[in-house]
Design a protein that fits this description.
Radius of gyration: 24 Å
Number of helices: 12
Order of helices and strands: HHHHHHHHHHHH
Shape: flat
Distance between the termini: 7 Å
């Protein structure tokens, strides 16, 4: 197992190098620069600023210099947020995104998994149709619509919860963003669980367990749940990153100071180092999430060998 993990981590190095190279090339190929403002800047001042940030060097030399910085764990200074490094901006915004995204994924599992199991065990009945109808609604309605609706109902009309702001992580401020972000993932988890469990319940070994007279809950928990979770584990790898990257909309609606706000502002203002830093972060998180998903897959299915 340890050898497998080490091999995957080593194989991630060229993957990350490709991501860095493509992002660097696309950013520098885009028209404009980080200091091309609406007002014309004095040429001497602009040249001095570009020299400070090494933007006057050839692009290949800038690329090699940037790789050397990354090797030291330094993502460079932000061009837009003066006197602030990209590491500091990520350290400021990442905990907020991880909190919102992690709670949203937890809610999706706690709600979507039982919903899918209920639909599969009541296949063809009204509970099945109701569960899948709710899931279809969750998939069809985008977060950009769900979030304002939650604010309108629970913050404006009922006045139960705050309409936005981080509030230093106050649980009341987290409820609406987490619910809005988790809604589509609840639907996906429920539908994947139902489809997988319906297939597993038709397997020969499940029929054998029923013929032996085992109770339905024993069959479900002891024999059916592990293979049912296999497709869900494959989905949770990219989904765990999706709840973090997808929080950009949530940040905008609820006024949260996460990484998404920095990323969007950096893209508009050609803040090369900030956009590169967030891209590298997301790429690394995707590699890590897929690795964890593969390890969980092997634990659930002993036939999978990670040798």
């Amino acid at each position: 197992m340890l050898r497998y993990v080490l091999r995957r981590l080593v194989a991630a190095v060229p993957t990350m190098l490709v991501i860095i190279t493509l992002a660097f090339a696309l950013l520098h190929a885009a028209p404009g620069g980080p200091f091309d403002e609406g007002k014309e800047m004095i040429p001497e001042i602009k040249a001095s600023i570009e020299k400070t940030y090494h933007l006057d060097e050839a692009v290949p030399l800038q690329y090699l210099r940037y790789l050397a910085q990354i090797a030291r764990g330094d993502l460079g200074p932000s061009f837009q947020y003066r006197n602030t490094s990209v590491n500091e901006l990520i350290a400021q915004g990442l905990p907020i995104d991880l909190t919102i995204g992690g709670l949203a994924l937890l809610v999706a599992l706690l709600v979507g998994l039982p919903l899918g199991v209920l639909a599969a065990t009541q296949r063809g009945r009204w509970l099945d149709h109701l569960s899948m109808g709710i899931s279809l609604l969750g998939i069809s309605v985008p977060v950009l619509v769900i979030a304002p609706l939650l604010i309108l109902v629970f913050a404006v009309t009922l006045q139960w919860l705050p309409a936005g702001d981080w509030g230093d992580g106050n649980p009341r401020n987290l409820v609406l963003p987490v619910l809005a972000l988790s809604a589509p993932y609840i639907a996906y988890v429920a539908r994947i669980t139902r489809g997988s469990l319906v297939e597993v319940l038709q397997a020969p070994y499940i029929r054998t367990a029923r013929a032996k007279g085992l109770p339905a809950h024993i069959i479900l928990l002891r024999h059916a749940m592990k293979p049912t979770l296999l497709p869900l584990v494959s989905f949770l790898g990219p989904a765990s990153i999706g709840v973090i990257t997808g929080s950009i909309v949530i940040e905008s609606v609820f006024g949260l100071p996460g990484i998404g706000r920095f990323f969007v502002n950096g893209a508009f203002n050609r803040d090369y180092t900030l956009v590169m830093g967030v891209t590298i972060l997301y790429g690394g998180l995707i590699v890590l999430a897929n690795l964890l998903a593969d390890l969980c897959y092997a634990w659930l299915d002993p036939r999978v060998r990670l040798s």
